[in-house]
Automatic annotation (TrEMBL):
It is found in: Cell membrane. Keywords: Cell membrane, Coiled coil, Glycosyltransferase, Membrane, Transferase. Residues 495-538 form a coiled coil. Transmembrane segments: none annotated. GO terms for molecular function: glycosyltransferase activity. The lineage of its organism: Bacteria, Bacillati, Actinomycetota, Actinomycetes, Propionibacteriales. Residues 39-153 form the Glycosyltransferase 2-like domain. Pfam families: Glycos_transf_2. This is 4,4'-diaponeurosporenoate glycosyltransferase. GO terms for cellular component: plasma membrane. Catalyzes the glycosylation of 4,4'-diaponeurosporenoate, i.e. the esterification of glucose at the C1'' position with the carboxyl group of 4,4'-diaponeurosporenic acid, to form glycosyl-4,4'-diaponeurosporenoate. This is a step in the biosynthesis of staphyloxanthin, an orange pigment present in most staphylococci strains. InterPro entries: Glyco_trans_2-like, Nucleotide-diphossugar_trans. Pathway: Carotenoid biosynthesis; staphyloxanthin biosynthesis; staphyloxanthin from farnesyl diphosphate: step 4/5. Belongs to the glycosyltransferase 2 family. CrtQ subfamily. It comes from Nocardioides turkmenicus.
Length: 553
């Protein structure tokens, strides 16, 4: 962790990046009892297993008064009815598509979450059987980490003949666990990621896609800072909301002790390619990370990778045009520019246009009127969510064509927090180029107070650093030589492309190493188990021989 600032005692329990182990390892104090209310939301459409899910929820050991279940009937025919075995605080909401209430899982879950009031939101699919301590194992994390987003452990079973009464009784008694050994069932791909990242402890949250809605939670205080479930998404909505809560500072925690049976095969087992083909387009628009999803360059996306903020006034309007044009000509083109200025003060009535003191602001406004990547705003929005990075650019600075690529190669590549770049020689020290990750800022805001400054909070959650700007090609636009045209050369693009390819190659090599290490560990475990079983067999055989000998004698 960077040591650029002295740690404020008030920040002793703040999670740095996604290192949840440093704050809470899952061991609760003796005699601990939960106090936070859990809202389970379940969307159902012609579900044949909902009764089993509700029966398992009714048998939870979590305090009854702290558990509510919202079932959203997404237009089932016949309509959903709540059976005998369901939690006491269960409500049924039916979605009427014909009345314009929408359709689809994400739409239904949005309605359910809005109708709930728990401190913890728990997404549970209608084809899950939760073991008796499941809710408790999920919920305990939020009591110790306010930004907790937990992911449960699923065992996929393909055949079953459970009844609701049987599920209720066996979940409550613990007998349900004896039907299947979870270790022998289909191995979900997320388990490989957990092994490679020390249960996401070393992931920085970038593996947010493991937070899947079949059995996952987040604290309401984090969820309410997002846009919420996107009704327009018909597949992959759990991944998209996971991206949102990541950008809002969630701490992702796999809870292997929160065990379930998933009734049926995993979708990716049968339709993985079709699902990925459909989702990748929707994901690319809304989630700039991971970077591979955006296979096209030099184009606009709904959520930009970087949002650059440039503040302009009457005195700086003339240099602002060159500043922004140099930003738009970066080799890293996945960005949006927010041009903050006094646009509402501009006179539009009859006037002597050439003598207007704000003539340069008028010209600046016209220059970018049709530019889709530039938005003129009156006030600094401060928060650029869901864009993952905010770049503050002093209007008097011009960035070399590969500057943003260099910045992101370092900041994104090394998962850094706030990075400030020293101004070039001759430029005032107050004119600092700064980049800030949204997920760090979102979490830091929760801890900033009268006794904790925002910069202290940022340093505690992700780190604050200073870097040299020599490699960025920064120029002082007030003294720089005028140019006829701002262009981006082929050599700049080629160099940026080579660097990107090199970074991808290094990442692939690192992934291969991680997988090899994980495979070695699994092989060692399997070998140890086999050896243990062999010893047991030899002991049993020896005991059998002795027993038979005693009988004969």
């Amino acid at each position: 962790m960077p040591k650029s600032l002295t740690r404020n005692p008030a920040l002793s329990d703040v999670v740095f990046k996604n290192r949840w182990r440093d704050v809470f390892d899952g061991t609760v104090p003796e005699g601990w009892e939960p106090t936070l209310k859990v809202s389970v939301v379940t969307a159902a459409f012609n579900s044949k297993t909902l009764d089993l899910t509700l029966a398992s929820l009714a048998a939870q050991d979590y305090p009854e008064e702290l558990l509510e279940v919202i079932v959203i009937d997404d237009g089932s025919e016949p309509a959903v009815e709540i059976g005998t075995y369901a939690p006491k605080n269960t409500r049924l909401i039916r979605v009427h598509e014909e009345l314009g209430e929408g359709w689809g899982r994400s739409n239904a879950l949005r309605i359910g979450i809005e109708a709930s009031d728990g401190d913890i939101i728990y997404w549970v699919d209608s084809d899950m059987i939760l073991f008796s301590d499941n809710v408790r194992e999920h919920a305990k994390w939020a009591h110790f980490i306010p930004e907790a987003a937990t992911i449960g452990h699923k065992g996929f079973i393909e055949e079953w003949d459970f009844t609701p009464e049987q599920v209720f009784e066996e979940v409550r008694s613990g007998e349900i666990r004896k039907h299947h050994d979870l270790e022998t069932l289909h191995r979900h791909w997320s388990l490989d990621i957990y092994e490679e990242t020390d249960d996401l402890n070393a992931s920085g949250g970038r593996n947010y896609s493991t937070h899947m809605g079949a059995c996952a939670t987040v604290t309401r205080s984090v969820y309410e800072q997002t846009f919420g479930q996107r009704p327009e998404l018909k597949l992959g909505d759990d991944t998209e909301i996971a991206y949102q809560i990541w950008q809002r500072g969630a701490v992702f925690i796999p809870v292997q002790s929160a065990q379930t049976y998933h009734l049926g095969r995993a979708t990716v087992q049968d339709k993985g390619r079709e699902v990925a083909h459909f989702n990748d387009v929707h994901f690319a628009q809304r989630m700039p990370i991971p970077r591979y999803r955006r296979a096209a360059t030099n184009r606009q996306w709904e959520v930009p990778f970087v949002t650059a903020v440039v503040k302009v006034d009457v005195d700086t309007a003339e240099v602002a045009r060159r500043c922004v044009d140099m930003l738009l000509n970066q080799t890293e083109s996945d960005l949006q520019v927010l041009l903050v200025g006094p646009w509402s003060t501009l006179e539009t009535g009859r006037r002597r246009v050439l003598a207007d003191p704000a003539v340069e602001l008028h010209l600046l406004q016209e220059w970018y009127r049709c530019e889709g990547r530039v938005t003129m705003v009156e006030d600094d929005p401060d928060d650029v969510f869901p864009s993952p990075y905010r770049l503050d650019v002093p209007v008097t600075l011009g960035l070399g064509p590969s500057a943003l690529n260099e910045i992101m190669r370092d900041v994104y590549g090394n998962d850094l927090g706030v990075v400030n770049y020293f101004p070039p020689e001759g430029v005032e020290q107050t004119e600092v180029l700064t980049i800030r990750p949204t997920q760090a800022y979102s979490r830091a805001l929760r801890y900033a107070s009268e006794t904790v400054s925002p910069i202290e909070a940022l340093d505690a959650v992700w780190g604050v650093e200073w870097r040299s700007s020599k490699e960025l090609g920064l120029i002082d636009l007030r003294t720089a030589e005028p140019v006829k045209k701002i262009t981006r050369g082929d050599s700049d693009l080629a160099m940026a492309d080579l660097r990107e390819q090199l970074a991808l190659a290094r990442q692939r090599i690192e992934n291969i190493r991680n997988r090899a290490h994980a495979n070695r560990k699994r092989a060692e475990i399997a070998e140890a188990r086999a050896e243990a079983l062999g010893i047991k067999r030899r002991v049993r055989n020896k005991v059998g021989r002795v027993t038979r000998g005693l009988r004969r004698s």
